[in-house]
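Input sequence (148 aa), recorded before submission:
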Amino acid sequence: MKELFNTAFEVSLRILLILNVARDKLSLERITAFDFIANYGTDFEVSDYNLHGNNRLRFSEYTVRREKVNQGIKDLVLIGYVLPCCSKEGFTYYLTENGRAFCRELNNEYATKYSNMVNMVLSEYGNFAETELINKINHRAIAMFGGK
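Predicted structure, token format:
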């Protein structure tokens, strides 16, 4: 069966929006976490609704999402919308001017809602370390299934 949602292309568009809103260099881990939290804002207390709806298996998406974000970043680098930056902490990514121009063309309702959600995520979790973000996601997943 052909995928309808969370394709590499769809994830690439969200990566562009995250980098556009953040206006900063972000790692693969931060992009993945911010995307996941933005899609499921209710679970992370940044919104009163989840952009991607409610489903029991949403936390199982996280691992696959990381792979798709990785592929999306590669695709965006190849077309010149994103550039990698290497530091002693590892690779981070930022938008090129072509990437920013493309984002200005994404002016539909979903792009607006998603960008607003990313703003809320950055306000709440922007200063979290990568390990804190991943721990937050893991703790929410455990709590959802009745753990502590």
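Checked by second reader. The mean pLDDT is 86.
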